[in-house]
Q: What sequence folds into this?
């Protein structure tokens, strides 16, 4: 009987997480943190031979009305898919009626998927407004060799997709920064979109924003309609750096004066901020900042990163 009981306890032992289950974004708690917590709980229960300890309420701490948890995954149905480019789509998920993600600006969620029996987790930043209710949206690029990309490509409308969070983020207070320079490459534009909308939704916020979006070609610019709409506000300026576009004349006329062909360089930055006094820089690039200059260049023109 003792041997059988011991075998039962071993079957209840939490499984060691795989490296693929960590998204690598510094989430707290990470999947390894929750494993250590569950292992400690299992050890206490085993030593006291009390299985009720395994059912200890994880939500004993403060609760909120959001539909998310940083410790457990919640499943949301995929409502629609909008193809933006050959490898990037806008995914919209339905939340419970009146439900909200409860996000702060710049926060991301962790997506969990399975590919050929292997669990994979990756971090993605919603582009929907932080105040959005009943839905959330993600700008996701798929890669030929990406494990998570293989999972995402299987999605169909109505599929349940698992998320947990939120994690990360940055503090933003209206009228604190004066001028804000955003530098984003590719889908790195995702955390910038809710912040821009947050600023323009607040009539009292007079923060001036210049968004520098780095893409390969004009057709690769994500969320063009949204960015055009936002640039009509007096305090929002958009500028584009296209590394593989050959001729400005091939662009719509409204883009020709606000586009640089080639790579983002120090001269372009100096021209953008030459009349500014104090500037704070937000920089985001995925997966590698090929189009984005390094912090040392930003400091050389007295920009605070």
A:
């Amino acid at each position: 009987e003792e041997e059988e009981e011991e075998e039962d306890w071993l079957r209840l032992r939490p499984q060691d997480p795989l490296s693929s289950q960590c998204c690598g974004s510094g989430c707290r708690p990470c999947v390894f943190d929750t494993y250590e917590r569950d292992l400690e709980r299992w050890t206490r229960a085993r030593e006291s031979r009390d299985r009720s300890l395994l059912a200890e309420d994880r939500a004993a701490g403060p609760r909120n009305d959001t539909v998310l948890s940083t410790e457990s995954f919640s499943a949301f149905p995929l409502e629609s898919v909008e193809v933006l480019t050959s490898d990037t789509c806008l995914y919209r998920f339905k939340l419970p009626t009146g439900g909200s993600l409860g996000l702060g600006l710049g926060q991301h969620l962790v997506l969990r998927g399975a590919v050929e029996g292997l669990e994979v987790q990756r971090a993605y930043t919603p582009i929907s407004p932080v105040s959005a209710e009943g839905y959330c949206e993600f700008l996701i690029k798929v890669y030929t060799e990406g494990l998570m990309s293989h999972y995402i490509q299987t999605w169909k409308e109505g599929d349940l997709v698992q998320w947990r969070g939120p994690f990360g983020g940055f503090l933003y207070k209206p009228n604190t920064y004066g001028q804000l320079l955003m530098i984003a490459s590719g889908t790195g534009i995702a955390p910038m979109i809710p912040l821009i909308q947050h600023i323009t939704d607040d009539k009292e916020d007079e923060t001036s924003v210049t968004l520098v979006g780095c893409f390969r070609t004009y057709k690769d610019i994500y969320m063009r309609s949204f960015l055009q709409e936002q640039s009509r506000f007096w305090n929002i300026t958009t500028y584009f750096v296209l590394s593989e576009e050959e001729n400005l004349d091939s662009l719509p006329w409204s883009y020709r004066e606000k586009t640089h062909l080639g790579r983002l360089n120090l001269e372009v930055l100096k021209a953008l901020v030459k009349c500014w006094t104090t500037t704070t820089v937000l920089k985001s690039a995925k997966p590698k900042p090929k189009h984005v200059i390094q912090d040392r260049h930003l400091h050389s023109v007295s920009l605070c990163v």
About this structure: The two ends are 64 Å apart (CA to CA). Helices lie at 2-12, 31-48, 147-152, 192-201, 224-230, 253-256, 266-273, 295-300. The first strand starts at residue 74 and ends at 83.
